[in-house]
């Protein structure tokens, strides 16, 4: 979906997007803002129990949203990570390092509660399109 000024809305088809009134991502010019994403596999609406598996699902969902928007993971300049339990941070870091090890966006890790007890990780990113060339 897009409007006259070029703003585009990207959806995963998650029922939460319509229910809560948000887009998975919003593209505005060379910027892409990806909403906080949790560990659901939106095709099956299932979520792994462990934080590492949730993180892998989250990164896959973010990667697809960025790709649908015409961006790449390498375009990510800012990331916010929320975990519900400090004990899960090492497992989450290990998964993040696999994807962001070379990208190295500015990042913040927060320990806080999420909206459903099964959610252990939520990630939000902002991407700036780099010149392609």
TrEMBL record:
GO molecular function, one term: oxidoreductase activity
UniProt-listed Enzyme Commission number(s): 1.-.-.-
SUPFAM superfamilies xrefs: YjgF-like (SSF55298)
Pfam families: Ribonuc_L-PSP
Keyword annotations: Oxidoreductase
Family annotation (Gene3D superfamilies): RutC-like (3.30.1330.40)
Calcium recorded as keyword: no
Record-given protein name: Putative aminoacrylate peracid reductase RutC
Gene transcribed to yield this protein: rutC
């Amino acid at each position: 979906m897009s409007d006259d000024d070029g703003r585009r809305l990207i959806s995963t088809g998650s029922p939460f997007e319509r229910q809560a009134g948000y887009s998975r991502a919003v593209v505005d010019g060379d910027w892409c803002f990806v909403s906080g994403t949790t560990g659901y596999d939106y095709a099956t609406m299932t979520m792994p129990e462990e934080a590492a598996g949730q993180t892998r699902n989250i990164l896959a969902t973010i990667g697809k949203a960025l790709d649908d928007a015409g961006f790449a993971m390498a375009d990510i300049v800012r990331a916010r990570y929320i975990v519900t339990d400090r004990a899960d941070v090492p497992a989450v870091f290990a998964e993040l390092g696999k994807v962001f090890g070379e990208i190295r966006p500015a990042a913040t890790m927060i320990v806080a509660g999420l909206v459903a007890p099964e959610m252990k990780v939520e990630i939000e990113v902002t991407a700036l399109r780099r010149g392609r060339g």
